[in-house]
Specification:
The structure holds 2 protein chains of 2 kinds.
Chain A (H helix, E strand, L loop, with lengths): L6 H10 L4 H13 L1 H18 L8 H11 L12 H24 L6 H17 L5 H4 L9 H4 L5 H8 L7 E6 L6 H11 L3 E6 L1 H13 L18 H21 L1 H11 L18 H6 L7 E2 L4 H9 L2 H6 L1 H9 L9 E10 L1 H17 L2 E4 L3 H13 L3 H13 L3 H20 L10 E9 H7 L22
Parallel strand pairs in A: 1-6
Antiparallel strand pairs in A: 1-5, 2-3, 2-4, 4-6
Chain B lengths: L8 H20 L3 H23 L2 H17 L10 H24 L3 H4 L28 H15 L2 H12 L4 H8 L3 H18 L1 H7 L5
Helix pairs in contact in B: 1-2, 2-3, 2-4, 3-4, 7-9
Classes of the chains: A alpha+beta, B mainly alpha.
Amino acid sequence: MSQPPNMEEILIDYLDGTLDATRRRAVETLLKHDAKMRKALSVMRQVRGALGDLPIEPMPAPAAIALQEQLRPPTEPSIPLYSPKWLIRLAAAFAIAVTAGLIIWSVLPPPMDQRTVAMNSVSSLAARSVAFDTKKDSSVAKLGDTMEPSLATRAGGPEQLRADDAASENEPTLMVVVANDIGGTEREIRNLLTLNNINYESVPASVAERVEVAKEVQTPGGGFASDAAMGAAAPAPAALQADKEKSEEKMARSASEAPAAAAPSAVAAGPAPAGHVTPSPVPTPLAPSARAAGAGGGGQGMGGGSRRDTAQALASAKPIAQQFGAATEKRSQTGGGRTASEPYGMVVARNVTPDQLGKIRSGLQNASRAGNLRVVDPSANRVTQAQTYRKQAPDRSEQTNLNQRQVQTQSPWQYSNSQAIQNSQELAQNTTQPPISYSPRYDVTIVVQGEGAAAASIPTWPAPATTSNSTLPSTNPAP
Amino acid sequence: MLAAAGFNPQAAQQTAAQRDQDCIRKALSGDRGAFADLALAWQDRIFNALRKMTGNEQDAADLTQETFLRALSGLASFRNESSAYTWLFRIAMNLAASRHRQLVRRKTVQESQLRTANADGVERPGIFDTQRSAGEAPECSAEKQERNQVVLAALGRLNEEQRKLLVMRDIEQIDYQQIAEMLNVPLGTLKSRLFRARLALREELKGYFEAHETVTP
């Protein structure tokens, strides 16, 4: 139940004009008789009018702007996707990208095809040939480096060879297995190398070296002396053992100084039997070829004309050789020759051409037919394959014509690069005094092994591709 | 005169209400620009009400800014049961009341500072300047401007509840129903309070009105 409106409410409604007609007439009748009510109504109107007359004051502009800046998102007003501004921006970006691409395309060198790569290799090869000398380290060029440039472009050719045969082809190893050596096999190998004008290093095993020294001392003029002809004071077993240890220490030091040269010899020698010394790539001080090489100590000898020098050098080792006379005498009493398990020695022929390699092979095979030795040549097939590739390659004039045709068929902007390559080729040709040699060079390691030692090391070698080189009769008697 | 010119207040009010709803819906979906548009539509009226409530332009501007920032942060709590302006006005009045309480507490300590003359030497009326009476109106060139200042000063001398009622009803012309909802009082009570607030203001302006005007019966 609502309360009846009081006079204040009625006056408020009357002043606002919201009373109905009946109540309005009633209020007007009351106002005529009540002065206090009239005064109150007058006050209401006066106050309402005074407040209503107050001006509406808008928010000051700085405050309004600050408020809008606070309420508006910080990003710039979004531009519709269909706005031309987007199209303009897109077109500008595309134009910039195309311009930049053209600039880069015109500045960068063109992509090189296989032939261009080959031409670049020709340039680098020519430049490299300038520095070609007869020094020991640089004279032995790798097969891939000395190959004719056209070979580099032959798919699956020398690259494949280089990958497959890097270990065996560049340094072919021939193992001469001797069933019962009487001491002349290694000497014959040296003579063979000397006759073919091949540089070599003789790396004898310690025991074999001592025997060799003893023979050289007994017969200064060289020749094939038997062990039985040699005689001297017998060395004490303790002295022999001490000398062995001394030799091992020297060989270990030499191996650390020349690991690259030591690797093939270690492979060739295989696991040496107990009590024997692994051949060293660097000759011991008693090595006759090293003595013949003279100053420098590089261990590189020249076979031709060095026999007398070698004998003279070995004469200085006479006291040592005399100490080992007993050993040689003992050998002669037991039937002569070395024991089957001894590693006899190793000869490393340097800078061997394919023709010289063929002569080495044929000479060793001729010896094998005559005596009790056999030749194991696991790299024969590989080398033959590389020679075949070389024979199929075009000669130098053909390659030059090919390069010229390539330059003529290239576009103008490619021509500049090709022209530069050609210029570099011509420059290399003019500055290279010695003719560019594309003939491969090899390091041929010839290992002389006893039958027993070779039997242990041969299985670890790659199987020979051809069996024609193995001429040792299966019925060859073992010692 | 506006009606003769073709102005339809109800249609205009409906259009404004529809615009406010659109702005709030967009703002709720993440469009801050829409809320800025809403603020642009109501910022002058909010400022005006706060100006009358505080009697100080700078305070009114600060409170207006604060009002819209509060509204933006509490936008999710807005319900369409009331108009956007009523919602904003309620926030503004609450802020003004809070500010008034802070000033009253500060006034007890620094009362003299509130009546300090400005730097230009002209002493401006403050809504809380209780020492100024209606009879001590400043010698202004414009009589109307003088009366407005006197009225504002008298309004400032009322209590917060009376001042809020007078501002909402006699200045902002908010209908009784909305005011009753905002103040959470019955409609009859609201009208009685409004009646007493007017009498109180009239009492504050008694000297001024007696000196310059005659009360019409």
